[in-house]
Amino acid sequence: MQQEIVRIGLVGLGNMGKAHRANIRAGKVKGLKLTAICDRKEAMPEHEEDEAQVEDFTDMIRSGLIDAVLIATPHYFHTSMGIEALEAGLHVMVEKPLSVHKADCERLIAAHKGGGQVFGAMFQLRTDPVYKQIKSLIKGGELGEIRRVLWDCTDWFRTETYYASGGWRATWKGEGGGVLLNQCPHNLDLFQWLFGMPDEVTGFCHFGRYHDIEVEDDVTAYLRYGNGMHATFITSTGEAPGRNLLQISGERGMLTLEGRTLRFQRNRTPMSQFSQESGAGFAKPDCWSVEVPIEAGSSSHNDVLQNFTGAILRGEPLIAPAAEGIRSIELANAILLSSWHGRTIPLPMDSAEYERELQRRIDTSNHVKKPREVKISGDDFSKSFK
Ligand SMILES: NC(=O)c1ccc[n+]([C@@H]2O[C@H](COP(=O)([O-])OP(=O)(O)OC[C@H]3O[C@@H](n4cnc5c(N)ncnc54)[C@H](O)[C@@H]3O)[C@@H](O)[C@H]2O)c1
After folding, report:
1. What does the pLDDT look like over 295-330, one tens digit per residue?
2. Is pTM beyond 0.90 here?
3. Which of 90, 226, 264, 325 has CA 20 to 30 A from 214's CA?
4. What are phi and psi of 252, to 5 degrees?
5. Residue 223, domain CATH
6. How far is Cα 367 from Cα 358, in angstroms, rounded to an integer?
């Protein structure tokens, strides 16, 4: 008989895990049933017996109560827990980032034996109608060959209280990085999803520029592609109001996303062709401008979980296969490595070199987190999804 329900175990009941738990319990993901949860005793909900409560991850894996696992712990555990669950034959959905560094991504991906085992990653921005529309315009050739990209995603503002809210946050040992590892895996994933991987990366990171942290909270990167395209990627958790501006300049015009508004300025004649053919010195191609309609809706964790469930039950193709998560990590790692060494990093980068450099920072860290009274509510957290 065909399987109709996927029994899932959730590990990590923090900000993200609690939101996943509430969504699955509310029946927002058809065919997915939460049968076990795993965290420290103190993090467990009280007086509820809807799901088995397990304190040890290995016990949950071996319980026989689950077909799949959703990993929503601090990032380093994504690798160790992901490998354990994959080796036990379970389907796995891992929160972003896939791992902290490329070598761990390689280990994790190697544990996935394929076949019917489904391994997905939570890159829910791929479900956002605005980014789906941009991808379809690029793929459909509307922009012609892309020459230059600017992504200024400085709308990730975070307070000192946020950074104090978990001992693991914003440390080399606990998180393995700052804005590039926590907030930007989404943007970097979209970056490679839309434009592919660059040939080389030059990064300029500022560490603790706006916050009392040891990792990067302000980043500018220059990415050079083999086809002559180049891109600038800027991000920060210290700038307010900040903005989300994505500008894609192609032969046939320019696409600009600012906030949720997508504008297409379309060249009547492709720009290089016009430059070659025009007899005038100061002329420009005729251009018209339209606002591109965007379907209603926004990015959705539940859509990714629904797709994961469909992949297990009916073999649907994944929106975000976990193996693709290595690319956003390679970009983040290359930007950091370039900043540390003051040189351009050719891709593919040396994952062992990066792992050694990160370990050196962990071993020599003398940053002390200052205690601060912290209470982050679920409401506070949900506001972070704009
Ligand atoms: N997709 C998204 O939009 C999104 C948003 C927020 C966070 N995240 C990701 O979710 C993950 C968790 O982030 P968060 O903000 O919820 O963190 P958090 O600190 O609020 O929660 C982490 C939870 O994991 C538990 N945990 C730690 N080690 C464990 C272990 N060995 N066994 C069982 N439980 C353990 C902690 O006790 C805590 O309850 C991160 O990787 C983050 O990048 C994704």
Report:
1. 998 889 999 999 999 999 999 999 999 999 999 999
2. yes
3. 325
4. -95, 5
5. 3.30.360.10
6. 15
